[in-house]
Write a structure and sequence with these properties.
The complex is a heterodimer of chains A (about 475) and B (about 200). Chain A is about 5% helix and about 30% strand. Chain A contains 4 helices and 26 strands. A 4-stranded antiparallel beta sheet of chain A has the order 1-26-25-24, with no helix packed on it. A 4-stranded antiparallel beta sheet of chain A has the order 2-3-4-5, with no helix packed on it. Chain B has about 200 residues and is mostly helical. Chain B is built from 8 helices and no strands. In chain B, α5 packs across α8. The radius of gyration of chain B is 17 Å and the shape is globular. The chains are: A mainly beta (about 475), B mainly alpha (about 200). At the A-B interface, loops of A face loops of B.
Chain lengths: ~475, ~200
């Protein structure tokens, strides 16, 4: 038997002929993964229902405080508590529809507007700080990011009084159009708060936001919320890529290299971590490696998934609006040519029509990528799980030793809206029955659920799993 | 022929009698709907379809009342689970829907009134994803030679997708509208294919 195994390994090494390489960003579109790939180890997963009955859930987070609680974000403006035992507490953790006597704080008129995300401070157990990101009614749809403090005596419920007493506005980012806000906020392994921002909306990036370093739209932002004396709302991390780029300075015409001159970008915003994004609705850090993954929603033709190693110093340009995934924007036909701007994604998938006039695909890959989280279990190592809001497909994107692979793990009937890691590293996902069409408003659509990704052979007896299409 | 096969007011047809036997067998078969031993679904469906068509053909305007047990089995396009097409509380199934349940044939095909109504419904519910001409964009094409779910080639299959939902944003519109509306939409979609 041993001889057989050794022989097999030798054959495999001979056949593959590939040395194991470290992960790297693709250098050409041919290296970008597309559906149909195979992840190492052929992982098999299932989605187990944790809880249900949520109004348009769009996000979930753990407080990483050992209580096992999960916090589900309802678009209308409420955060619900799911206990470790799977019970949904009837009183919300936070209800932003009730904190202001003049009416709800949260704008929900359009399906992309609402309360999107909650994030707990890395030292939440000590300081009780919680952060939330939402579209604001008083500020006419602007993106407000706020911090509030949990009263230790009331760990499952932040009253209106407690919220109003402790609230601190971290950022107020205007929004001219009602779509493409981005949405998720999350602390990185470095303790900084990362914020995803869409290109501020409409279609085609008419504000040229993605490439404009003077705007916060179309970006990943990275800020330090632990300011001296807790005075300023935030400060700029000392190693942010554009920290110095816009700083006023004496003019030197000589003695600086061209590279040095090219780093001067007057008017650039130092909060920027990465740019050239269209609508990075969800992003996640690999809890093991600290790598950053971004699910950037595409426009008419392509969805993209971007990856950054932990060692990145930031400043990546993901190409929007010159490129959509590894393709041109605007794409006119089969032969449209354009330069690749900035960094390529590691994975992409097309809508029905990869370019105008293309034969329509019948697979229905999807039309709106929802990143969920990075899995280091169930036979996966560093695999980014991403679902699609339109098709219900769920992919894993990972490195196979020499290139990126994108493998469909499940085809569910769920409209994925968000996801995150639980404290134990397992991946959580939420789904809604909400869409651009027939949106009945944030509390009248059929309710959505909270799911956990488990290995297919570890589904607890009697647990409800998401129905899937036979493949 | 008409008297013995199609229902007359207050009367019971031969087929209804045998169906009653079948129905009671089914109840004994358990909640999962185990059909009586000795009958194949297909045979029964074909017999029902033939009878329904015969009744419709020979008695214009009088459609045999179809109880739930007489319906074809409708399956979720996604995972094959059985769809419950019985009327919801307070809902009345129209004769067209009842005939469709029995035969799988959409009575609204080519019906100008239904097509006009179907067009309005399509514009409200479907066109943003499937486009005004049905060629697809966010959702797949409805007028091509092949479909994401092959069964959509038949009206019964298209009904299963619209009523019971499929993947992701293709919701179970049976929760949002009546079955009669769905049949009108299907009739309209089929008319798009011919354009």
């Amino acid at each position: 038997m041993q001889r057989f195994v050794v022989g097999l390994a030798a054959v495999a090494a001979f056949v593959s002929g590939q040395p194991v390489m470290a992960q790297q960003v693709p250098k050409s579109p041919a290296d970008v993964a597309r559906p149909g790939g195979n992840l190492p180890g052929n992982p098999q997963i299932a989605l187990v229902k944790v809880a249900e009955g949520f109004n348009d859930p769009v996000g979930v987070a753990s407080a990483f405080d050992g209580t096992g609680r999960l916090f589900v974000v309802e678009r209308v403006g409420r955060i619900r508590v799911v206990t470790g035992g799977g019970e949904v507490l009837s009183e919300p953790f936070l209800d932003l529809t009730k904190t202001n006597p003049l009416g709800t704080e949260v704008q929900t008129v359009f399906v992309e507007q609402g309360l999107w995300s909650v994030a707990f401070h890395p030292k939440f157990k000590d300081n009780g700080y919680v952060f939330a990101s939402f579209a604001s009614v008083p500020f006419n749809g602007a993106n407000l990011i706020v911090r509030f403090t949990v009263d230790r005596a009331s760990p499952n419920q932040v009253s209106s009084e407690q919220f109003n007493k402790t609230v601190k506005v971290i950022m107020n980012i205007p929004q001219p159009y009602y779509n493409h806000y981005g949405g998720k906020i999350a602390f990185g392994p470095d303790g900084y708060l990362y914020i995803s921002k869409g290109d501020a909306g409409w279609e085609g990036d008419p504000l040229d936001a993605g490439q404009n370093l003077g705007k916060l739209w179309g970006k990943m932002l990275r800020i330090n919320v632990d300011t001296q004396g807790d005075q300023a709302a935030y400060s700029i991390p000392r190693d942010n890529p554009f920290l110095d780029a816009g700083r006023d300075r004496m003019m030197n015409l000589f003695g600086i290299t061209e590279e040095g001159f090219s780093k001067i970008k007057i008017g650039s915003r130092p909060e920027i971590w990465a740019y050239g994004l269209r609508n990075p609705w969800q992003f996640s850090f690999d809890p093991k490696t600290g790598d950053l993954w971004i699910g950037d929603v595409g426009q008419n033709h392509w969805e993209e998934i971007d990856w950054q190693p932990h060692s990145s110093k930031g400043g990546e340009n993901y190409g929007w609006k010159h490129n959509q995934a590894s393709h041109c924007h605007p794409i006119l036909g089969a032969d449209t040519k354009c330069p690749i701007v900035g960094v390529l994604p590691v994975a992409e998938y097309p809508h029905q029509e990869p370019y105008p006039g293309a034969p329509k695909l019948k697979d229905g890959w999807g039309c709106s990528v929802t990143g969920l989280g990075v899995a280091n279990y169930a036979g996966m190592t560093g695999v980014y799980l991403a679902g699609d809001w339109c098709s219900g497909r769920l992919w894993g994107v990972g490195w196979d030793g020499s290139k990126w692979q994108m493998e469909e793990l499940l085809h569910t009937a769920l409209q994925f809206t968000g996801g995150n890691n639980d404290q134990d590293g397992s991946i959580l996902a939420v789904n809604c029955y909400c869409f651009y069409l027939d949106d009945k408003g944030p509390v009248a659509n059929p309710t959505g659920a909270l799911w956990r990704v488990v290995a297919a052979d570890k589904v607890p007896a009697g647990a409800e799993t998401a129905k899937t299409r036979a493949r | 022929m008409h008297r013995s096969f199609c229902s007359a007011p207050g009367g019971r047809s031969q087929l209804q009698d045998s169906d009653a036997t079948l129905a009671s067998n089914r109840r004994e078969g358990g909640a999962s709907g185990n059909f009586a031993v000795g009958y194949s679904d297909r045979l029964r469906a074909a017999a029902l379809a033939a009878t329904a068509m015969l009744c419709i053909a020979t008695v214009p305007g009088a459609v045999r009342s179809v109880a739930a047990e007489d319906s074809l089995q409708f399956k979720n396009a996604f995972d094959g689970s059985t769809l419950d097409v019985r009327p919801k509380a307070g809902e009345q199934l129209t004769p067209a829907v009842q005939a469709f349940h029995a035969s799988g044939r959409n009575p609204y095909r080519d019906d100008p009134t239904a097509l006009a109504a179907g067009k309005k419904l399509y514009e409200t519910w479907c066109q943003s994803c499937h486009m005004p001409d049905g060629s697809g964009r966010m959702g797949p094409s409805l007028i091509g030679d092949s479909y994401t779910y092959e069964q959509v080639a038949t009206d019964k299959g298209m009904f299963e997708v619209v009523f019971g939902g499929a993947g992701g944003a293709m919701q179970a519109f049976g929760k949002r509208m009546g079955q009669d509306d769905i049949l009108q939409i299907i009739a309209y979609v089929r008319s798009l294919k011919r354009k």
